[in-house]
Specification:
This protein is α+β, with helices and mostly antiparallel strands. It has two domains: 51-120, SH3 type barrels; 131-258, no CATH class. It is built from three helices and 16 strands. Strand 10 and strand 11 (158-166) form a beta hairpin.
Length: 259
């Protein structure tokens, strides 16, 4: 074989190898795009009605696998809307006195897993909604919600009392919904259901201008029966009470007043 023939043959082989590499790269890119498109299709079509909302005050981690130790894909902020893709398996986990499972979710084009204890089918109140408007909007999805607003007793400070129900099944879910609605101090997290019958927890490092900021907890046989957060400053105060009469829907009473 002549030198010119060898050069021509090597050139053909080189071109062929480059072509194969380009084809492989192209196929990989298509596969990645198809995978992302499939995930987005699942999120936007097949599961569009399976919405959940993040109620963790500091946000909730979306993880690669169904494990609390798995790689974190992103942090989903408080109030984020996610889509439930699969219900969790039988394994029960406990995080900060809260029991739950790892659920498969779709969020912002990503698919991963998150702890169910910090998710709720009920969204949080937006900044531009009054409590009454918020509850009325929720009633479109949860028609059994009750709402009532009335002025405070004339012998008390001038103010109002909002009373409504939340159709949730767990104390921690009711607590974190209320904490998100009224922006309760993050340092006063969900209390341990086990403990003394009466307990008062004060907000650590509360601002000097705040007279009091504390959470009262009532338990019976290591079971929560009432949580009350109270705030008082010059010229203004409010309290939020959470109870569960007869193990039905949770009852929320919000009292606000001015001096």
């Amino acid at each position: 074989m002549t030198t010119s023939s060898r050069i021509f043959l090597f050139a053909l082989l080189f071109i062929g190898l480059c072509s194969c590499k380009d084809n492989a790269t192209s196929q990989n890119n298509v596969a990645v795009k198809d995978s992302v498109a499939t995930a987005k299709t699942a999120i936007t079509k097949d599961f569009k009605d399976q919405k959940r909302y993040v109620i963790a005050p500091n946000g909730l981690s979306l993880r690669k696998e169904a494990s609390l130790e798995s790689e974190k894909l992103t942090t989903m902020p408080l109030g984020s809307e996610v889509v439930l893709l699969e219900k969790g398996g039988p394994k029960i986990l406990e995080v900060e006195h809260i029991k739950g499972k790892m659920l498969k979710l779709g969020y912002d084009g990503l698919v991963g897993y998150a702890f169910s204890g910090y998710l709720s089918p009920i969204r949080l109140r937006s900044a531009d909604e009054s409590t009454e408007a918020y509850i009325l909007n929720l009633k479109e999805t949860f028609p059994d919600i009750h709402f009532e607003s009335r002025p405070t007793d004339p012998d008390f400070h001038e103010g109002a009392i909002d009373t409504y129900t939340l159709p949730v099944t767990n104390w921690h879910e009711a607590f974190y919904l209320v904490a998100g609605i009224y922006e309760l101090p993050k340092s006063l997290g969900f209390p341990n259901p086990k403990g003394p019958d009466k307990e008062l927890l004060e907000e650590p490092n509360k601002p000097e201008e705040v007279w009091s900021s504390d959470m009262g907890i009532t338990r019976t046989n290591n079971t929560l029966t009432k949580i009350v957060y109270s705030y008082r400053a010059e010229g203004f105060g409010y309290s939020v009470e959470i109870t569960r009469p007869d193990n039905t829907d949770f009852r929320i009473e919000y009292l606000v007043f001015v001096d």
